[in-house]
Amino acid sequence: MDMHGGDGWKRDEWVARRRPGGLRAVIAATGVGLALVAVPIGCDSDSTDGPGSTTSSSSTGSGGAGGSSSSSGGGLGGSSASGQGGGGGAAGGGGEGFQNPDNPVGIGLVSPGNATQWDRAAELAGPGGHIKLIFPGVQPGMTGPQQDWHDAVTGVYARDLVPVIRMGPPWGNRNVRADSDDGTHMTYTNLAAAYAAVVAGLPLRDSWPLVIEVHNEPNLCYEWECDPNDAPSHSGTPTGWIHYEHMAAEYAAFLRDVTSAIRALGQWRILVINGGLAPGGAVNCECGGSGFNAGITSREFLVAMEAAVPGVHAALDGFASHSYPAQGEGWGFFEAYPNSIVGLHYFETELAQLGLSLPVYMTETGWTVGAGAMGSRQQVADWTVLAWENDWHQHADIAAVMPFMLQDSNWSDFAWVDGNNNPYPVFDAVKSWRCSKGIPEPCP
């Protein structure tokens, strides 16, 4: 099944736009402006379009830049009765799709965040930068987002940031498979409908993306929990345990169904990416307990996903990776920068394993000063700037890098800002580096 719903053009265009100067060159050549407004899915354009908006009229959805649509989700600049416009623009003289500034700099939060955190993220990343938000608590039967989720997206867009939203189950209950439609845990249409309902209720900004990351690190035992009496049998795996091949198959089916449900909204601005995998994963996990056996990387998990649901990754708009600095693949984390290059480039091996070329969203990465770490706050700052200069900036595959994380008392060793909103050296160093590079333009 073509889970893109006719949007196959979008991935190639988005990859091209992430090349150095790609979008800035498009804006310069076309004179496209950046005065954009929020446009909720399904709203009448008469009540949502405003000054500077390039969104055209739509009876049930949002038309593409410069075009019109009588159904949901018009394409790039063309008129469309079914929601998929062409590339010229009958009504607006031609549009160019995404018009956010070309800026891969970002940071992650561990919640929807608050105004102070969004302000700090905007200061760090600059216009068009990316911010990862976490919306926990998606469950079957939901008909829309929580108010704080809606407010977070509105607030982030208002600060000229691109929201990258990790959606997942409630904190403390990671048994996603229990919400499947069938006993084999290979169909998730009811849960997928809830994901789509939440996404449909989030605001959109005209010609800016909204990126949805589906769950988190499902190759770890505590992120893909199971009941002891519902563990599938697998050769060599103890009774009451689950093997990673089953975990991968189930997550692939879940990702397929969520992707398909979001595609059915017909909105080209909504991009879907996988949940980033932990570089090192478990061979099997004890259901209802804490036991596990390590011994694989994320690549084996990706192979098992594709074997169970062929094409599940090709149907995505981008690839999420958790390429933490490490001296090895799935081990030796948080070493000094010169010893961490293997880990920083781990995403390349993941994509090579899949044989795909997708924009990479680094939804977790970065150093810590906690136990096992090799550096001080100042060294973390120095190493992160080196990673931006040598490994992330201008990399042809990278759409955005969102290190873990801005601020949270439970993860203070990773934090870029302390509990009193004072920046640590890494914050100031990366901000200064970005400004020196003119990303997306010289700082004031």
How would you explain this protein's 3D organization?
This protein has 444 residues and is α/β, with parallel strands linked by helices. The chain has 2 domains: 19-99, no CATH class; 106-434, TIM Barrel. Helix content is 30%, strand content 12%. The chain has helices at 8-17, 22-30, 45-48, 115-125, 147-158, 189-200, 244-263, 298-308, 341-344, 346-354, 377-392, 425-437; strands at residues 106-108, 129-136, 161-168, 210-214, 241-243, 270-274, 280-286, 292-297, 319-321, 360-362, 398-401. The strands form 3 sheets. A 5-stranded parallel sheet has the order 1-2-3-4-6, with helices on one face. The chain has a 3-stranded antiparallel sheet with strand order 5-7-8. The longest helix has 20 residues, at 244-263.
How confident is the prediction overall: mean pLDDT? Answer: 83
Portion in strands = 5-15%
The poorly predicted ranges are 1-96
Number of domains: 2
Specify the biggest β-sheet.
Answer: 5 strands, parallel
**Major sheet: arrangement of strands:** 1-2-3-4-6
Instruction: Classify the fold: give the CATH topology of the largest domain.
Output: TIM Barrel
Output the number of helix runs: 12
Q: From the 3D coordinates, which CATH architecture of the largest domain would you assign?
A: Alpha-Beta Barrel
- Kindly name the structural category: alpha/beta
CATH level-1 class of the largest domain: Alpha Beta
Please tell me how large the radius of gyration is.
21 Å
For CATH, the homologous superfamily of the largest domain is named as Glycosidases
| Shape descriptor | globular
Record field, number of beta strands: 11
* CA distance, first residue to last residue: 49 Å
Question: Helices and strands, in N-to-C order?
Answer: HHHEHEHEHEEHEEEHEHHEHEH
Work out the helicity level: 25-40%
